[in-house]
């Protein structure tokens, strides 16, 4: 596995990875209507290009296939953090998170935080994130439970 910074040519493959992960992994914790609202088939590639390019986006590759990605914002927020459905529990997320933590330390960020799905919560807990609060969010008319989680880094 190789980690690198996002390139614009990655966008379509990242969108597919996101869609497939939500529909085939997160579906175990959310309803079909919820995952359809979360990861719609109507995707605006220009929105994704801006979203991926505006943050520190790290991409994990195996061969020439993208197997995961994660994003760090300058305020310590971890945004999109997804691992390919066929590469779950194989250390991909751990390596992406380690890279995010290294970048955060270089930026002198003291706290990382995220809104973890029900599915991702155990992963982040295993990496010493704590639940600040459970919350309900809405997307495209569907309500979701997720967890605001944080971790102090030094």
The backbone outline, from C-alpha atoms, is globular
Strand content: 35-45%
Mean pLDDT: 94
Biggest sheet descriptor: 7 strands, mixed
Strand order of the largest sheet: 1-2-3-4-5-7-6
Radius of gyration: 15 Å
Distance between the termini: 27 Å
* Derived structural class: alpha+beta
Task: Give the % helix.
Answer: 25-40%
Count of alpha/pi helices: 5
**What order do the SSEs take from the amino end to the carboxyl end, as H and E?**
EHHHEEEHEHEE
Number of strands: 7
Uncertain ranges? none
Question: What do these coordinates show?
Answer:
This protein is α+β, with helices and mostly antiparallel strands and 154 residues long. The protein has helices at residues 11-24, 32-38, 45-53, 92-106, 121-126; strands at 2-5, 56-62, 65-72, 77-83, 111-117, 130-139, 142-152. It has a seven-stranded mixed beta sheet. The chain is globular, with a radius of gyration of 15 Å. The model has no long low-confidence stretch (mean pLDDT 94).
Can you summarize this structure?
By secondary structure, this protein is an alpha+beta fold. It is built from five helices and seven strands; from the N terminus they run βαααβββαβαββ. Strands 1-2-3-4-5-7-6 form a seven-stranded mixed β-sheet.
